[in-house]
Amino acid sequence: MQNDTMTLTPLPLVADDLSWQEDALCAQAGPEFFFPAPGSSTREAKLLCGACEGRIACLEYALTHDERFGVWGGLSEKERIRLKRRRG
Ligand code: SF4
User: Fold this and answer.
1) How many structural domains comprise the chain?
2) Does residue 2 fall inside a structural domain?
3) In this predicted structure, what is the pLDDT of residue 7?
4) 29 assigned to some structural domain
5) Pocket of ligand 1 (CB under 6 A)
6) Residue 59, exposed/middle/buried by CB under 10 A (0-12, 13-18, 19+)?
7) What DSSP state is assigned to residue 39?
8) How far, in Å, from the CA of 6 to the mean position of ligand 1?
């Protein structure tokens, strides 16, 4: 017997690809590097990000999830805000 009811298959939820976190260099450094006190230098964190293979994915994750604090993908909060504005 044929079923006249249209079956809707839900689309699978697309989980964020977080594989870049497996090689995150910041996991080997202290959180104080990446979440420095206001006014503290972010230089060391940015240097580490520059050598991190997941930098681009990390930055996109931070932009997508509106991460407000800390250094992500080599950019500070203010730098990410500026980048988002430039992208529109
Ligand atoms: S780019 Fe920087 S903040 Fe992002 S995972 Fe790499 S080291 Fe961590």
Assistant:
1) 1
2) no
3) 54
4) yes
5) 24-26, 34, 48-49, 52, 54-55, 58, 71-74
6) buried
7) T
8) 46
